[in-house]
Amino acid sequence: MLKTVVLVSGGGTNLQAILDAIAEGKITDTEITAVISNNPNAYALERAKKAGAAAEVVRPADFPDREAFHEALLAKVKEYEPDLIVLAGFMVQVPMCLVKAFPNQIINIHPALIPSFCGKGFYGLRVHEAALKRGVKLTGATVHFVNENLDEGPIIIQKAVRIKEGDTPEILQRRVMEEAEWQIMPEAIQLIAHGKVKVVDGKAVISE
């Protein structure tokens, strides 16, 4: 059983996609043991409770400095002894102490085809605004392992989404979620749960 902890800051739509996939049998041998948020008002915490998972809050404002927050977050994650940590809209830069403690055990979903529109400053609607401004014809989403460099970890799965005439950032964001994010995150977790993803020479290799 793949014990999984999900880190999230907001509504938790990607979390819900994972929970639904588990309920529908698309993800097997996997359990969401805890959902941890930096935001006590995140609706994702309600989703966690409804699914029977622990709902935890580790808020930066409750600590004297960033280092103390990072240490508390790491300690809370370690309590659940996860095999996998999923970043599902976690709007906090992942502490280096967490990355080092769980090498190739943290995955993230980014709403673009990395290496396009990623890195510092590219999150949420900003990603889709940038894609529309540049005039690209395809965008999409990427699931990747998290390493010490922002959005530079080994890529597991990508899925393209076509940009349409008249798209706004909000419309594009929703389509990328529906057509890519909510599909490839569960797919990546299923592959990891069954030992089909390995990191070789800095690249994620998927076996049949």
The portion of residues assigned to helices is 25-40%
Unreliable stretches (pLDDT < 50, length at least 5) are: none
Strand content is 25-35%
Adjacency order of strands in the biggest sheet: 3-2-1-4-5-6-7
Give the helix/strand layout:
Elements lengths: L1 E7 L4 H11 L6 E8 L6 H7 L3 E4 L8 H14 L4 E4 L8 H6 L4 E5 L14 H10 L3 E8 L9 E8 L6 H25 L3 E4 L2 E4 L2
Parallel strand pairs: 1-2, 1-4, 2-3, 4-5
Antiparallel strand pairs: 5-6, 6-7, 8-9
Helix pairs in contact: 1-6, 5-6
Description:
The chain is of the alpha/beta class and 208 residues long. Helix content is 35%, strand content 25%. The chain has helices at residues 13-23, 44-50, 66-79, 96-101, 125-134, 169-193; strands at 2-8, 30-37, 54-57, 84-87, 106-110, 138-145, 155-162, 197-200, 203-206. The protein has a seven-stranded mixed sheet with strand order 3-2-1-4-5-6-7, covered by helices on one side. α5 (125-134) crosses α6. It is globular and about 45 Å long. The two termini are 20 Å apart.
Structural descriptors:
alpha/beta; two-stranded antiparallel sheet
Brief sketch in words of this structure:
With 208 residues, this protein is an alpha/beta fold. It contains six helices and nine strands. The protein has helices at residues 13-23, 44-50, 66-79, 96-101, 125-134, 169-193, and strands at 2-8, 30-37, 54-57, 84-87, 106-110, 138-145, 155-162, 197-200, 203-206.
